[in-house]
Amino acid sequence: MDIYKYLKKDHDKVAELMDQVITTKDLTERQSLFDTIKLELTLHADTEEQTFYKAIEDATRSKAVEEKVEHANEEHDEIREYLAKLTDTPLTEELWIETFGEFKHSVAHHVEEEEGDIFEKAKKYLSQDEAVQLAKDMDALKKQAKKDMAAVDPTLAPVA
User: Fold this and answer.
1) Three-class SS of residue 32?
2) Cα separation of 32 and 34, whole Å?
3) Which of 41, 59, 61, 102 is the most exposed place for a label (fewest CB within 10 A)?
4) Minimal CA–CA distance to 18: which of 136, 111, 93, 105?
5) CA separation (Å) from 34 to 5, 39, 82, 103?
6) SS3 for 88-143, per residue?
7) How far apart are CA 157 and CA 160, in angstroms?
8) Pair 14, 107: CB distance under 8 Å
9) For residues 113 and 70, is the Cβ–Cβ distance under 8 A?
10) DSSP state of 24
């Protein structure tokens, strides 16, 4: 699997979890789903920046491509801010679901830009072999991060 399919798989997984958050009325289930989203997106953003974005920046000195990656990093920061705000807002408050809707929109916007603009640009600079290796690297980093988290907090042990 190459990095593009790997990232798309991550994006699709989070989109499905977000849809479940919106449809469930069970607050315990909603909290569990949100906790999973928070973990998945945090791992995704951190490891994507360390692998995919870094590889793109290393492969090109194009100002336009660097600006795209910088913009994507800013969107990751915005997503982290939403995660923090949602974590600090009680699920029982109406504000939580409103904020979650904004967050969902922000993530969808980021995914659309990434799967369009950034993938397109990256394919011009990264070989297929590099794209396959990046998927392996990102997956290894995510697995290691999950192990490290589980060592600190056993409730964060990796789920299948």
Assistant:
1) helix
2) 5
3) 61
4) 105
5) 24, 9, 12, 12
6) HCCCCCHHHHHHHHHHHHHHHHHHHHHHHHHHHHHHHHCCHHHHHHHHHHHHHHHH
7) 10
8) yes
9) no
10) -
**Hunting for tokens 């603009």 — which residue is that?**
117
43: its two tokens = 């791992």
- Residues 117, 69: Cα–Cα separation, whole Å: 10
Tokens of residue 86, six digits = 């949602």
Report phi then psi at 154, rounded to 5. Answer: -60, -20
Are 38 and 87 within 8 A, CB to CB?
yes
Report which of 144, 37, 19 is spatially closest to residue 80, judged by C-alpha positions.
37
Q: For residue range 127-160, what is the model confidence (pLDDT) as tens digits?
A: 999 999 999 999 999 999 988 887 887 665 555 4
Instruction: Find where tokens 């909603």 sit.
Output: 30
Kindly report the number of other CB atoms within 10 A of residue 142's CB atom: 20
Token digits of residue 64:
């336009």
- The residue type found at 69 is V
How many other β-carbons are positioned within 10 Å of the β-carbon of residue 62?
A: 15
Q: What is the pLDDT of residues 8-49, one digit of tens each?
A: 999 999 999 999 999 999 999 999 999 999 999 999 999 999
- The reply to whether the predicted model has a pTM over 0.70 is yes
